[in-house]
Amino acid sequence: MHINIPLCVRNASFLVKDRGGLVEEINHFQEVLKSFKGQPIDLVAPLTPSMSNNISTLIFGERYDYDDPERKSLDRNLDEVCKIIGQTAVHIFFPWIKHIPFLLNWLGFEKGYKLFKVSNDIFRKKVEEHKKTLDKKTIRDFIDSYLVEMEVRQKKDAKTSFKEEVLLGCVSDIFGGGSETVRVSIGWLMYTMAAFPDVQKKVQKEILEVIGPDRNPEYQDQKSMPFSHAVLLEVMRWKSIVPLNVLRYTLADTNVAGYDLPAGTIVMANFWAVHHDPRHWEYPDSFKPERFLTPDGKSIVKSPHYMPFSIGKRACPGETMAYMEIFLYFVSILQKFDVRFPEGYKPTFEGILTITYKPPSSKIRFIPKN
């Protein structure tokens, strides 16, 4: 299933080229934030539907109203499944447990499977709708792109891995991974800006100098905003949104750092350990955006030990799209709002570990700028 994801994303050029829908969604999200008039809010509530709308636009070719029951079902199921199969779940370290029925019940797998099936039924319905309305000359979204590619591949090879069931798996992977990780990243950025007001002011100064108070930010602005870019990179290192990569296994006998790994060995990458290794990062537990800047502060310097989206052939295929979303939301919010904690709140940077590493549950004020 995962082999096909980068191929499909590469074919679906609209994933990164058609940004009109993303800008529209960000503008709508800002209006929602304004409606709270600077009162403390749980950012997760308005951010969750906004994130899933970006993904559903790319996959299904449509966005949902924030109160749409189908969207609520997808987001609710994703949240519950993330809790059930969280990073600390026993089955990750002892995969054989999944073959013992009563333990599956105890671990919540039966509930997780039912929720997954509800979401998968929605995805299946979307695929059927696309099959009925497909126009090869007008590719609307990811599903269209996959269906066209699937037809081409099946004509060449009846045993191709491009199949409808694999498409459903790809849609599920992209919807889950694409909305959850970006939402958590933006959550940490806002939490960090509220905790470090001096850094926030410096980012806002750069926004005014490069973009101004009114123009919609564009992804290419990132090249002219080294400090804002460095803040984004540092938060994603410091808080490592996905601390542990999903399980992989070796396809052949290999050797890594002197250790022999037979074919079929389960491998898990510990990104948190790499991002907090004092051999590679000075004061790794401290928030220091300048570590990603040249001494003059004018250019970005990336470390080879920076890997929030993994590395190599199994790196996240949606990395470019994710960076674009995170940057545009981050800059757009700080362009229009001052971000603060409620009076008396003392931030703690101990997050909540599920499949991702989430910021602490807290309320934040988004005060509209004049």
Automatic annotation (TrEMBL):
Cofactor(s) annotated in UniProt: heme
Gene3D superfamilies: Cytochrome P450
Major subcellular location class: endoplasmic reticulum
Membrane topology: Peripheral membrane protein
Keyword Metal-binding assigned: yes
One GO MF term attached to the UniProt entry: heme binding
Localization: Endoplasmic reticulum membrane; Microsome membrane
GO biological process terms on file: organic acid metabolic process; xenobiotic metabolic process
Keyword Endoplasmic reticulum carried by entry: yes
Keyword list, A-Z: Endoplasmic reticulum, Heme, Iron, Membrane, Metal-binding, Microsome, Monooxygenase, Oxidoreductase
Matching InterPro entries: Cyt_P450, Cyt_P450_CS, Cyt_P450_E_grp-I, Cyt_P450_sf, Cytochrome_P450_fam2
Family as reported in the entry's similarity comment: Belongs to the cytochrome P450 family.
PANTHER family: CYTOCHROME P450 508A4-RELATED, CYTOCHROME P450 FAMILY
Protein name: Cytochrome P450 2J2
Organism: Araneus ventricosus (Orbweaver spider)
